[in-house]
Protein: MFS transporter
Organism: Croceicoccus mobilis
Amino acid sequence: MNLILRFQLSLMMFAQSFVWGAWYVTAPNYLGTIGFTPADFGWTYSVGPIAGVISPIFVGILADRYVSAEKVLGGINFFGAAAMLLATVLMQDSAPSPTLINFVFFLYMLAFYPTFALLATLTMRHIEDPQKHFPGIRVWGTIGWIVAGFVLTWTGWEKSIDMFYLAVISGLMMGVYCFFLPNTRPMAEGRMDWRQMVGAQAWVLLKNRSFLIFMVCSWLICIPLAFYQQIVSRVVEMADMPIGQTMAYGQISEIVFMVVMPFFFIRLGVKWMLAAGMAAWLLRYVLFALGAPMEISWMILIGIMLHGVCQDFFVVTGQIYTDQLAPKAIRAQAQGMLVILTLGLGMAIGAQLAGYVETRFTPPQSTEYAQMVQDKGRQIVQLEAERNNASADRRDALDTQIAVLQAERKDAREAELKNKNWTFIFGIPAALSALALLLFVVLFRDDRLPLRRKSNVMRKTGVAADGSSAAA
């Protein structure tokens, strides 16, 4: 493969994931200090899945029929950067409106969610052997997310509005870069088939009992997934661990388990690979339920690093199972149906449930401390504005007052988080994971290996037949 082309496509994957990783996981660590409640976070993390069901269809039509994919990708990155910049303006209002900010996040997600499908489309069109080369290019997306997390920690932006500015700047840079990518002209011809676009032809697969059970359990397991994305970073903050860096360990483990996944696949088969992934979700929430209340760092860290098993053993295995079970003519529709039910419907319901559960198990003391955090923050902003126009002597006095307020704000934030009932907050997703696992193990009867040859497993997961990683 041409090395220049490989570099271009790898950098594209890296940059696009960096944009999202710059804010998506750590957003609650700042938004919680300006008035966002658990219910507000429920909407922050619902708008993405909702947008993910709506926008890819229309953006896909645009790229398939009317405009080159790289230009569509560049345009929606510019739109996303503008939406995020607007969100930062709203965040700095004297009384920020979580509802309005979440609506802007929804606009952002309408632009951002289709980018990953466009990345895949653009890459596949320019590489001769996708099974051989795509995993090694795609892995740079995961690396981009990891680097974003480390940058947030190293710069100290993981609890400040600066993370959103980082998303704006990197989004603008990505938008510019897109126009230097290889030309990917639209190729679709003929009339649009709306039944294909909404995946209606794939519904016939649900007549297969095992596939139906798989889809239901996939939907169920994605409900507790939302708890991880919108809550765990604040547990990391409470335990005084580096937030962005610690959360990035989950993506590092994803790369590790992707390498070893084929060897487990051959020995366990589809059913028990899927079951192992679901069991990992159960274990991680048990660890969070036990470790968060006492701030046991090693339990929290293991729970995060189980992300590799959760992601690869269940999500990736599920994609492979779907690909092998579905007839070739409707495989794309089958994958789309899986995404809509899991990362769309499942995640949206999960985000709302996570918001409700956190609200239910947040005592009044925690809410009072949260209000103190907001009040102290407003006082700090006022004093910093006054300091800009003050005399030298007055600045020294203001610096002292600001330092005191910052210490008080930090103590109030710590008390806010410690007063939450973490055992019950994580006990709910643990119970849901256990239910999904039980239903799957008992009802899923398809013991056939849908993977026809060992080499298929290796290619699907990005690992060569000799055991070396294609991502290397």
Summary: The chain has three domains: 1-183, 198-362+420-451, 366-412. The chain has a mean pLDDT of 84.
